[in-house]
Design a protein that fits this description.
The protein is mainly beta. Helix content is 5%, strand content 48%. Strands 2, 4, 5, 6, 9, 10 and 11 form a 7-stranded mixed sheet that branches. A 4-stranded antiparallel sheet has the order 1-3-8-7, with no helix packed on it.
Length: 124
């Protein structure tokens, strides 16, 4: 069982930036970031296929968020820029060992390992 630990959540104002990090205890083929706002379903934000570093993004964050993996492939990052109140949510790091196609779909049900989440709050 891979352990995932997120960090970096904070409160910022609209237009601000944050960088989330997630450390993993093991290697997986695909890692991703998801978020869940109060009263809403968990949604995919971004994922990265670790074998070739291909990245995938939800339309809502394209051009503003960047997912990356460090060279040791043990720390996942999510750089978030131009934040808006709609980005307020608990952000979760997740991992799975399925193929690249599954990674691209960014569906929560396909990910087997989850972190505990980190709160991001954006105020207007």
């Amino acid at each position: 069982q891979i352990q995932l630990v997120e960090s970096g959540g904070d409160s910022v104002q609209t237009g601000g930036s944050l960088r989330l990090s997630c450390t993993t205890s093991g290697y997986t083929k695909c890692m991703g970031w998801f978020r869940q706002a109060p009263g809403k379903e968990r949604e995919g934000v971004a994922s990265i296929y670790t074998l070739d570093s291909n990245t995938y993004y939800a339309n809502a964050v394209k051009g503003r968020f960047t997912i990356s993996l460090d060279t040791t492939k043990t720390t996942l990052h999510l750089e978030m820029n131009n934040l808006t109140p709609e980005d307020t949510a608990v952000y979760y790091c997740a991992a799975q060992s399925e193929g690249q196609g599954w990674c691209q779909l960014l569906r929560a049900k396909d990910f087997r390992n989850w972190g505990q989440g980190t709160q991001v709050t954006v105020s207007s």
